[in-house]
Amino acid sequence: MPVAIPSTCLVEGALCWIAAVTVSGTCSMAPPLRCFLSGGAAVSARHKDRVMGSEKPVKNGMQMLGWKNESGGPLGGKTRGAHEQSSLMNALNSHQVWSLQGTLLLLFPQGHTNVISCLCVSEDRRWVATADRGPDALIIVWDSFSGIPVRTIFESHPEDGVSAIAISQDAKYLATISAGTVQRVCVWKWTSPTEKPMCSTELRPEFGHQDYVIFNPQNPCEFVSNSKTQVIFYLWVSRDIGSCISGARRAHRGLEGGAGGCTLAKPRGLRSWMSAHDWGVTLFCRSAPALVPLDPPHPLSSLDSKVIRADHRSPSTPTLGSVPAVAGMLSASATPDFPWTLCVPRASQQLLGEERVFCALWKVLEHFCPRSPALVTTVRGQCLGDGEGTRWHYRAQFQNACPGYFLHFLQDDAGLQYGAPLLSSQTFNSVVGHFSQSVFHFNNSQALTGTSAGKLVVWDVVSPRTPSKELPAKPHSMKATKLVPMQKDSLTVLKVFESCIVTGDVKGQVKFYDGQLQLLTCYSHSKVGPIRSISFSKTPPDPPSASPACSTSCIPSSQPFVIRNFILSTSDATVLRVATDRTNFEKVMEEAKKAVNAIACHPRQALVAVGSDCGLLKVWDYQQTKHLISRIFTEAGIQCLSYDPQGYFLAAGFTDGSVYILDAISLQSSCREFKFSRGPITHISFSHDSEYFATADEKYSVTVYKSVLQNGSRCWEHLAGLRSHYKPIRSILFGVQLDSNEPRLLSLGEDRQLVEYDLNSSSKDHLVVLHRDRIEQMAVPLCLAWYPQLSTESFILTANNCYKMKLYNTTTKMCRKTLLGPTYGSALEKIQILPPTNSTDPQKRYLAYITKDKVGLQILPVDGNPHKSSAFSCHPDGVSDLASSYDGCYVFTVGGNDRTLMKWEVNLNALDAAASLGGEDLIPFYNLLDGGREGEFFRELEDYFYYAQLRSHGIDTLETRQVSTHIPLEEIPSVMRAMGFYPSEEKIEEMINEVKFSKYVDTGEQVTKINLGDFIKLYINHRPAFGLSMKKIQQAFHVLGYDNENGDKVIDRGDLLLLLQCRGEHMTEDELVQCLTTLLGRRPAGGGSEPDTYDPSGAAALTEEEIPAEITAAIFATDILGLPIAEPEKKNRKERYESLVYKDSES
């Protein structure tokens, strides 16, 4: 669907390439859920989504990439028709990269697992670098033409991720700043395979949080960053001398390409770069007894440079007086047409870097031997020292008319240096304000920083007062030299484009200045909000015929000012295109300014409604990717949405407790506003016949409305409300009575209560509760759905926070099955049964679900097979709602604060194929056992299983035993406990009833025994998904205990015994004594296999002797229960215990 660019020109976690042409083709491979893309994405996930904004800005969030042709390459030339065909890139949602193609369609390659925090684009718009924050943070460089990631840097800043990133003008280097309290700045050569930065340094916390960084376009060895209070200038030195000189020269345009070589002019960059580093040249005499310098070192900056030609000649090229060139050697000679020529073999380039190294050597030779042609015979590099004192010596041995000399190039490898010049209100006796962005000037050594006071800080190199032959080295010599008032309004964006300095401010104005900060022109619009980013088109502009009315020109008409079209993104979720030859700003998109939490799909048409906290309600045609209608509610934000089953009405619940019933087409109110809730509406649901609709709110109340006829048209009126829960309500659900067509209403809360209401008996202001059932003992139910009629019995499906899905009989509310649900990092937050499709078997249904940050599918019937489910990351900051299309082909998710709606295409064939590959029958369950089918755990299970048969027949019997593959149901608890799973009495009853009544509805008979295969399934589905951790035991002690003198949470011995007998599943005194004597090793050692006997006498003395008066969590786990814990926890019991106490156990 159309992309909605966020309020801050970004959305968290993805990039967006927005182009004006559609790429043809489709993906051949696709996962079960895939975001749909109209066109050929080079990834398996395909998306046709829209983005709705973001809470947190991505630095340099919106960039214009230039439009592409159908082959994926960039297009040149002029615009087509009335609209410029351009391309935008923006960080959108979660961990993916979006590309908007043609009529607002998206390319969505996935990459990051966290929210994308910053991005940057190379000068040629080919490479896009993104970075994120959070665990396992990544830096990814993408090819913008194809959307394919070409380089991924792992563990760049493992602590907190990246807060700012920039790419150099030559696209070779990346600069990143970490997001931690102590920020780390790194320089990366991203084309290198190494995972280590070229250089790095740590910043002091008093510099503030540096959240913006940019390279000097004239020198990749320089960059600048700023926080709100401090600007920092950086200078980095590479161990590859050639690369650094190369970058400096190329940035200063001292390189002119030629056939077979290049002409190296006398560049300002080389000299300034050498003066900024600790370079020195010393001439040594070979004939001296020791290498003693003949003259003081000569700084290279004092050398007189001439135009030197570095020529890569073939061996057949004639030269005068050259010597054979071998690896590590270079030859210098004179030719008739050019007196000074360097022949540089490729081996030498690989060894020493680029030809600039030799150019620098040649200049030194020319300086010392200006009249005689020098012949350089050897150049070697040697590293002396290590750490901060490392120096690289480049030694050049040459011959000429003078005695032999050795030439040494010395470079102090200082790594990454930085300078943090001070600037305060006292510096210029004027208010500075907070810094926003910084840039380097385009034609001098200055740098500029915009401030919230509407001023520009001018930074420049300040020479020391003491005379010196060498120029001061950046960055320590950068100082604030001017504070230029530009305007009264805060500057939010500062850019350098071509020969202009461009600013954007909080009033939505874009101003252009020349190099002397003289205003050239201004673009403004009354409805443009604070600007967050500006990006210019790659297409050159046409000469203007007239000055646009939206701009104010400040230059003479004889010198027309021509600027390229550009894109603005604002903090109020708007993107605008400014055509500099037109009179109006063109709005590209405008979206929600606050969280998007509500979504609903039309039951009969390809429509989806989306609501946000800012009161914006939009309806989209998701097949045509077209926005149909919208309405803004200024009183409150939209919290939930629901269509009625016929699709005539759309109900909206608001944060102020009000409910609106809207016409589904026009979004106009169909009846008066309802406001009977005291808190925000969280759920809305219609009955199957639209006679009722009900709402749930944050005050734990359920409110029911009934349909009435008014003037021949349907409307609703308030029936009754009830505070039926004491914890948040997770679901409300209408159903149909089994013996009639009457609706039934249920609600499920975190208080573990499933409440059914008697609608027929309810009257005005009196809502009657028909049943109230506690459906969980310890787990918290999170969602509810009607299970499809796949068998004779009817069920209600729930999912809880322990990764379990449960089936309850719709009439008796008895738990009929407990099943292992999807385990993808967090429990299921919401489930929805997909409508049957024409291509699927009517008896084969599917379920869509969301977890905290993922969306997935599950094959029904649920049986605990993990291969029957799949999940994909969608919103790393959390999924707020889920909806499915009327035909079951699409699933929609919204991400709350990331303001993003995603449309996922459902591929059921891929899910079925994955389930088939996982194996059939018991194979998937064998793999869930420790060691699998051939492991020791399975062999122990078989031994216990057959031992239970012996117990059931009697150990001492002399009768002939009948070997069986089954055991009685009464033996299930013993075998479960023998395998390390200790269920409560209620769970034991649920397990036995699950097997006992498994065939009752079909045959009318109860099952009395279970075989090994069914027992394994029962064990897998009922045992805890991840075992019991020491953390859970600690949490229990924090609730039940108190702080002792040492600050430990403890429980008094008497209180513990009392709690065991009076709370939860009560234990009798005899049961408690029996357990304690067994646990403390005082049970009589018997040789028989019959149930043990014990003597209760002396139990009190044993308790006082073996159990301390104050019990900590560690003592309870290790000394009483005898459970193993990790060694670090034994050494320091005050730590927060995280390791597993034991496998396959539950809290």
Automatic annotation (TrEMBL):
InterPro entries assigned: EF-hand-dom_pair (IPR011992), WD40/YVTN_repeat-like_dom_sf (IPR015943), WD40_repeat_dom_sf (IPR036322), WD40_rpt (IPR001680), WD_repeat_EMAP (IPR050630)
Keywords for this protein: Cell projection, Repeat, Signal, WD repeat
Top-rank lineage group of the source organism: Eukaryota
SUPFAM superfamilies xrefs: EF-hand (SSF47473), Tricorn protease domain 2 (SSF69322), WD40 repeat-like (SSF50978)
Keyword check for Phosphoprotein: no
GO CC field: sperm flagellum
Signal peptide boundaries: 1-24
Subcellular location: Cell projection, Cilium
Classification via Pfam families: WD40
Segments forming a coiled coil: none
The protein, known as: Cilia- and flagella-associated protein 251
